[in-house]
Structures are given as structure tokens and as C-alpha cells.
Amino acid sequence: MDHPTALNPRDYAVFSDEKMGKVTLFRSDHLLVGLNCFEPGQGHALHAHADMDKVYQVVEGTGLFLLEGEETTLDAGMVLVAPAGVPHGIRNTSDSRLIVMTVLAPGPTPKR
Amino acid sequence: MDHPTALNPRDYAVFSDEKMGKVTLFRSDHLLVGLNCFEPGQGHALHAHADMDKVYQVVEGTGLFLLEGEETTLDAGMVLVAPAGVPHGIRNTSDSRLIVMTVLAPGPTPKR
User: Fold this and answer.
1) Which residue range is the domain that position A77 belongs to?
2) Residue A18 lies in a domain
3) What does the mean pLDDT of chain A come to?
4) Within a domain: B18
5) What pLDDT, on a 0 to 100 scale, did the predictor assign at position B107?
6) CB-based contact, A98 to chain B, within 8 Å
7) Is the pLDDT of residue A46 over 50?
8) pLDDT surpassing 80 at residue B4
9) Contact (CB<8Å) B6/A74
């Protein structure tokens, strides 16, 4: 978005049959606010960011979240923080769509 | 919290009759995740952070959010970004409690 504005994250969700849908809602040098959108069965493989902390917040649905080798099921409204360097991932093991808001800080460098 | 863990933000809400309740859920050099908790009639006066972006997400209730001279009513689930330097504030004009999750990046320097 060009201009800061109030938004309902679920209005911006994008799904794909092939893989997790990824959306950027806001980005600056300090942070990136985005969405990860999962059809049933889709996931985001375990990965880590060396220098970025990530905040997950479940907007809609239920997902299996992996953090530091532990699996936790999170429902809508719940929050999980993956500090820099800690491997994390998500799998939508439910029968419904899963929308997760992510805040990354500092924001990742744009790909060129 | 000492250890990153899954949480339901509303479980951590703290209210005060005197002023907005303020809670830190997670903090690092990169960001601070917290809660602002408002009884009916309470607010957070218009202010700006020179070097920090702030993401608001309404956890529970309804509030009047001020940003760049505009007033917007936000319900549970909605998100507002206040970029660095942009004045922002909140007022709980409803009859119910209001809980707002905030993500500040980079995190503020701890007060000494």
C-alpha cells in the first residue's frame, strides 16, 4: 500500500493451489508486515532468519507451528515469536484455510 | 517471557482504572511486542516516534484510532500501521474494554 491505512488482513489474503500464498501489506526499513496463506495441506518449510525476528499472528483457521523442535497448534488470535536464528515453520493440518499475519523486523532486503 | 512461546494476547491484558494498561510480551533489539489495554473512556494521547514504525492490531473491542489527522474506528482483527514520524493515538469510545497488540520496530531503548 502506498499510504498507511486501516485494513482487515483477511481482505488481502491470496491463495494458490500450488503453494503458500504470500502477501506484503506494509514494508519499511524497520519491518515488513505480510500474510502467509495456506490451503489445507500446505506448509512453509522449517527455516531460520539469521538477523530478523518474526512475529506470527493467526488471522483465521488453525495451524501446526514448529519452533525450536516443538510443535504447537495455534488458533485464530494466537501469537508466536520466532527470534532471529531460531528455526520455525508452519503446516496447515486442518480442513480449512489458514491465514497468518507475519511481522519481520528488521524488514528483509528486497530481492533484486 | 524468557522463552519464545505461543500465547493468546488477551490472557496477558492488564487494566487499570487510572490509565491505559501497558504490557510487554516480547522484546529484542529488533522489535517490541506489547499490549495497550483500555477501559472505556481511556486513551493514548497523540504522539509520534521519530525512528520507529508501529503496527497496531485490535485483539478485542473497538477503538477510535488517530493517524495523520484522520480518525478511524477499528474492530477486532483490524490492523493499522503508524510509520516513523507519523502522529498516532487511540481512544476507547466504546462501552467495553479494548485490547490492542502493538509491534514496534526497532524496539525502543529500555528506560534507565
Assistant:
1) 12-24+33-52+61-87+100-105
2) yes
3) 92
4) yes
5) 84
6) no
7) yes
8) no
9) yes
